[in-house]
Amino acid sequence: FQPKRLAGKTLLITAGPTFEAIDPVRGITNLSSGKMGFALARAAREAGAQVTLVAGPVSLPTPRGVQRIDVRSARQMHDTVLPLAPRHDVFVATAAVADWRPATLAEHKIKKDGKKQAPTFELTENPDILAAVAALRGAKPYCVGFAAESENLLEHARAKLKRKGIPLIVGNLGPATFGRDDNALLLVDATTQQALPADGGTADKLSLARLLVADIAARLQAAHHP
Ligand code: C5P
pLDDT digit of tens for each residue in the chain (226 aa)? Predict the structure, then answer.
């Protein structure tokens, strides 16, 4: 039995990688299957929320009842998310957004023929979508970030909370979670940390998503009825 803990709530979720084009046939991207974000969208829907899922390039089916918007680049994801954010109660940023993009986009395929030297690419910084949503004035959602760190997870997560101005970070405890179905999470807020699953083991991403959704619902309720 799944209680409808998020009935009447709206959730905005980013998922997957972004793809930053170099030319019409090439680009740079991050490793991300999108599985965690899609599992969260499904779990939030099951919990009664209205869910908008903004997805980078992934090959995953849309969870039933979820409104999905496909994007490719970080800027497209940013420009899709920002206007939607004020209309949502919660924003969960699971996307592995590329930090940089090529400074220029070549109109045609860059050719190898006759060139003695390999091309070099100048990169420019992408917008931080999560920080931008957290910095919205007026109505803004409860913001949840993800952190994939290879070391000192707690320390980095706390620093990230401050830097992005958000109340909750979800750290990936599993060493190699990309594309895998099982994982362990560490929920970090300004004063507490809590492992999911609570027994310190691992769980599949849908089970973790359901636990995380229940936790977020409890935090929302505490925020409204402290
Ligand atoms: O700064 P860092 O990439 O480590 O932060 C990770 C968190 O910030 C994730 O929740 C990710 O979805 C979000 N993020 C974002 N836009 C970016 C970079 C990260 O929303 N450009």
Answer: 567 999 999 999 999 999 999 999 999 999 999 999 999 999 999 999 999 999 999 999 999 999 999 999 999 999 999 999 999 999 999 999 999 999 999 999 999 877 788 889 999 999 999 999 999 999 899 999 999 876 788 999 999 999 999 999 999 886 555 556 788 999 999 999 999 999 988 999 999 999 999 999 999 988 877 6
Tell me the Cα Rg of the chain: 18
- Active-site residue 30, yes or no? yes
Pocket test for ligand 1, best of 29, 92, 97, 136 (most atoms within 8 A of CB): 97
Q: Ligand 1 pocket check: which of 20, 81, 91, 128 to mutate, most ligand atoms within 8 Å of Cβ?
A: 128
pTM: 0.94
Please give the ipTM for the structure prediction: 0.97
Q: Is 130 annotated as a binding residue?
A: yes
